[in-house]
Amino acid sequence: MEERECGKLTAEVGGHRRILARAGVLLTFVAAPGACDTTDRHEIAFARGEAGSGGDTSTTGGSGAALGSGGRSATASPGNGGSGPNNPIPNGGSPSAGSDEQAGGADSDSMAGGASGAEPEGSTGEGGAPEPEPECEEGAVACAEIAGREILTCEAGKWVRSVACSETEVCLDATAECVPIPPECVGRPRGARHCVDQVRYACSDDLVEVVSETCDALCIDGECAPITCGDGVENEGEECDDGNDDDTDACLPSCRRAVCGDGAVRAGEEECDDGNDDDTDACLSTCKKAFCGDGVVRRGVEECDDGNDSDLDACTTACKRPVCGNGVKEGNEQCDDGNTSSADGCTNACKLPACGDGVLQPDREQCDDGNTKSGDGCSATCKAEVKSIRLGRSHGCALFENGDLRCWGSNADGQLGKNGTGNSWPVVLSEVTSFATGMRHTCAVKAGKLYCWGTFYVNQRMIVNDSPQQFDIGASSVKEIHASAHGLHNCALVASGSRTRIKCWGNDAAITTGAIGVIGNFDPDEVASYPFVNVDGDVKEVGIGSAFTCALLTNGKVQCWGTGHYGQLGRPLDDSQCTSPYCLVPGDAVDLGAGFSVAALSSGNEHSCALSTSGAVKCWGRGWVGQLGIGEAGVTRGTLAEEMGNALPAVDLGGTATAVAAGGTFSCAVLSTGGVKCWGNAFEGRLAQPQRTGSDLSNHLGDAPGELGAQLPPIDLGSNARAIQVAAGEAFACALLDTRQVKCWGSNADGQLGVQTDDTIVGDETSELGANLRAIAFD
């Protein structure tokens, strides 16, 4: 009849409570007294016969010890290099036998002699290579080794020694605390067995418990032996008897057969025998002396041991781990320059730089995102890819992910900043965060400062720069700059306290028509004196037309000001701030109907388009050639209140849109499928629909019913091409694809398509599209 208690396993034997000590019985002791969690148990097999002839067996402490003669202890501790609740650090445990077949005997009643049996889960076994030191959680504590006297604490992800136990204490694995060693085991090695008179003592492997047994006859070398042991005759109860006390031969003085692990070195058979199964000390569990290259890490001596003679892996032939940063190339290091810089030809991981390693090499890479895939902002060759595009009247610019700005097309007014060719467009400015392309100029924001080049106006003063020059607008922190191919004014978004405000400037016509949105006392020749435009909230986006401006606010409103005789302001010109056809300051918000929440805004020459959060597009203003996409020609929308709101129809795109762009007299949208559709003025191939506009490009699209929706296919940009952005200039358009290529169509009279072509128009013939529509080569 079996009875279990926390801390011990007992049974009714002959009417007395005794520790089970019969051969082959597996005892389980809970490591922490009072705790019955099976994950904290040590298992002990007693490898001998009955516990003496009438001799009682007693225990002291809280773990367990093997009382077997000769056989290995079966303590189930974490394996060499393993980690767990009781052994959180590498090499702290020892491999052991964890099955019922202890000490090499298949028969559990015959356990003396032979090697240890099956290994417990988590052990590396004999010759197994240790796993690398695991990461630890901040503040965790652990014992430095089994039955060790030092406690480790995890600091900054590494184990550091923090507490030393006294000479009469050991660190208990289960709790990482110093606990007393039983007096009988103080100063003795783990698992030691010794005799005092006829009393046999066995210390547990963790030195927190001692098991004692009073022998009936003799106690020799920590083992009970019959009274006849040593007479040279093998009597009952003896495994052997050679009549001597030589513990280096095949029969021990205790009349037990010598086995590996009995603590006695057998001459000619064993190189060593330290009486334990710890593979991390000087004697392996195979009774061979530990050496570098045996595949077992010797605690305190070796840093690693992978069992081979290669110096090209993570463990050298000296059993040392390569130290990256010591200036010596060793192990599996590709280089070692003695520092922690990754930008000098040798990374801080001691690897040679390679595209895709995630370490930027400024002298040879524009970017490195840790992969070799293109289309994610950093190409497979570690070059920065295009992030966004803007188009002017006859030039365009692209901002790259690394902040480089490159421009192409006409440089007649210096708007490129640096001249290029159809095969190479140089970087004009770096570290750019925002940019805009105007009719004859370009501006960009760098480090909160505004730079402009080309030809532009402040009142009646013409400014001409053939390279980027800082332009003062009286703001310490410029966030964004906006311009257009159709107007002679600019607007900047400026950080003003916690707000984002808008300031506009331009030529004298922009001032008199109200396109700059302010009135009052200011010096028209000094932009720094211009006040902010008084809109009803912070500004998110700006649309600039030929003589008007619209702003999308963060509260979802759209407000417009300037010239509005074609409805481009989206409101009647009958309030007190308007003198037809001009409204000098912002007024009522544009009414786009119930449920139309504006996500993006773009303005063309004399019209604007808004994209809703649900993917619908509505356009207002001048629609003479179909640029409003409402199926009517020669119309305007926006001069009367009844033309707006729910009465203004959405453009039939045959799907939902993700981006919108208003060109000179045409409009374009990117669909959720990645396709691009354009409508309005068909001249010069700007719609890229030769089969629908006719060879003479006279059939505008969107100015009559049935021309859009499913009847209008996406532009053929090539097989599997998907656009993520579209930009529209005066008479040409460009799409940024998900491959980060830029493809353009329409007029190429000034090289604004970025590629050299035989014809000044691209998009009026089917053969010019698809795979034949070339992307701009920026390098």
Detail the topology: elements first, then pairings:
Blueprint: E1 2-5, E2 8-13, E3 16-19, E4 26-30, E5 41-45, E6 57-61, E7 141-143, E8 150-155, E9 158-164, E10 169-172, E11 177-180, E12 193-196, E13 199-203, E14 209-214, E15 218-220, E16 223-225, E17 386-391, E18 395-400, E19 405-409, E20 427-429, E21 432-437, E22 441-446, E23 449-458, E24 461-470, E25 478-482, E26 489-496, E27 499-506, H1 508-512, E28 539-544, E29 548-553, E30 558-563, E31 578-579, E32 582-583, E33 598-603, E34 607-612, E35 617-623, E36 635-637, E37 657-662, E38 666-671, E39 676-680, H2 690-693, E40 723-728, E41 732-737, E42 742-747, E43 761-762
Antiparallel strand pairs: 1-2, 2-3, 4-5, 6-14, 7-8, 8-9, 10-11, 12-13, 13-14, 15-16, 17-18, 18-19, 19-20, 21-22, 22-23, 23-24, 25-26, 26-27, 28-29, 29-30, 30-32, 31-32, 33-34, 34-35, 35-36, 37-38, 38-39, 40-41, 41-42, 42-43
